[in-house]
Amino acid sequence: MKQIKTYHHKKILVLGLAKSGVTAASLLHKLGAFVTVNDKKPFSENPEAQGLLEQGIKVICGEHPIELLDEGFELIVKNPGIPYENPIIQSAIEKGIPVITEVELAYQISEAPFIGITGTNGKTTTTTLLYEMMKAGNKRPLIAGNIGTVASGVAEQAAKEDTIVIELSSFQLMGIKTFNPRIAIITNIYDAHLDYHGSKEAYIAAKANITQNQTEAEYLIINADQEETMEIARHSDAKIIPFSAKRVLEDGAFIQDGWICFNDEKVMPIAEIALPGTHNLENILSAVAAVKLSGVDNHAIHEILTTFTGVRHRLQFVAEVSGRKFYNDSKATNILATINALAAFNSPIVLLAGGLDRGNEFDELIPFLKNVKAMITFGQTAPKLERVGKLAGINVMERVDNVDKAVPAALAYSQPGDVILLSPACASWDQYKTFEVRGDIFIEAVHKLK
């Protein structure tokens, strides 16, 4: 990593722990900063904070006391999940104290260039595909960000010859100052996280930060079929590389005569792609554009796209039991993601759905429920989903306590040849800590049927 002197003897507050906070605090300590960590979880229940204290880092746990700012901090590194309405953050902004997220720190110390991927849906699939294709093409990728490994931890180990492939949320992108990926991708933009951002305009502005520091020396890969993404492109100084799954483009990534194409080159036939779902063609096109710009050959692209069948919890095939195929799409935390999942299958579907009630209705699902023969609901939104199920003409519905009980109920209403699909259309937080936990419970319940 770069041995930067930026933070030497600077007083820095790391607000919120989890993986990113722990890594950022340790890194700043190594860079010579005077680090204080503040986390809401009590110290006695906080092994992460206990470990940082053993390193000699000051730790304050149990609350976020506003008096902390009286200590004269010169920078705050904020956990992305902490909203900007937090009193400490609000006070820091008023005092002119810079607030960044750990991604910015990763960029400042990294010797390796970045490929950054953001968007409402498809980020993880695109990031994983891109990483796998670059690996197959011997381009030395490292994977980081929301997909698993903390960015600053990866950057600390990265060499100049590596490329960091990073999935980025809108929360992370709100806290960047100089972050500048060599290639940026915006997969798509739909209404999401409005409870955090306050408006769609603020959400789009956060996503647009991925390209705010790019110049004509960098690339912005953008969905050509969305006005929201094209508007971002119009305000970017980067070289724009469009992609479209709906029409032939003059350049960029697109589909023509049954082939994935990049500029004037045919890359591979779409019939040979293993990943299900028409929505995944957009993810594939954006990833192909990025790896072609990175010098990956078509053989490596073909090798991955003919074998890659999906990411865990994202339209993931789990098993076939008694002639029924079970798919785990627990990452479908919004309506659009569930629409995409439903559109991926022609077989009769038993849909498992429900979760956190954010105040929205689900009427947008109705046109896409035509193949759904039965619906198993759970969580806070069960009554709302049952209402749209009735409007869509679904006669078989059952409400259960949780995902574990939904699986055997779905089996009872299915027949050989059916698809049993967990695609909740909701966040998991009413019953489960994360969508990953929800998906793992589904997988375990499916294997119990065997």
TrEMBL record:
Q: In which pathway does it act?
A: Cell wall biogenesis; peptidoglycan biosynthesis
Give the matching Pfam families.
Mur_ligase_C, Mur_ligase_M, MurD-like_N
User: Which annotated residues bind ATP?
Assistant: G119, T120, N121, G122, K123, T124, T125
Which transformation does this protein catalyse, written as a reaction? UDP-N-acetyl-alpha-D-muramoyl-L-alanine + D-glutamate + ATP = UDP-N-acetyl-alpha-D-muramoyl-L-alanyl-D-glutamate + ADP + phosphate + H(+)
User: Could you tell me which residue ranges the Mur ligase central domain spans?
Assistant: 117-291
Locate the coiled-coil region(s) and give their ranges. none
Example GO CC term: the record gives: cytoplasm
UniProt cross-references to InterPro entries, sorted A to Z: Mur-like_cat_sf, Mur_ligase_C, Mur_ligase_C_dom_sf, Mur_ligase_cen, MurD
Q: Where in the cell is it found?
A: Cytoplasm
Say if the entry is tagged with keyword Signal: no
Matching SUPFAM superfamilies:
MurCD N-terminal domain, MurD-like peptide ligases, catalytic domain, MurD-like peptide ligases, peptide-binding domain
Q: Where is the Mur ligase C-terminal domain?
A: 313-426
EC number(s) of the enzyme?
6.3.2.9
Biological-process GO terms, alphabetical = cell division; cell wall organization; peptidoglycan biosynthetic process; regulation of cell shape
Alphabetically list the UniProt keywords.
ATP-binding, Cell cycle, Cell division, Cell shape, Cell wall biogenesis/degradation, Cytoplasm, Ligase, Nucleotide-binding, Peptidoglycan synthesis
The GO terms this record gives for MF are:
ATP binding; UDP-N-acetylmuramoylalanine-D-glutamate ligase activity
What is this protein's function per UniProt?
Cell wall formation. Catalyzes the addition of glutamate to the nucleotide precursor UDP-N-acetylmuramoyl-L-alanine (UMA).
Q: Which family does it belong to?
A: Belongs to the MurCDEF family.
Name by which UniProt lists this protein: UDP-N-acetylmuramoylalanine--D-glutamate ligase
Q: Organism source for this protein?
A: Neobacillus mesonae
Gene that encodes the chain: murD
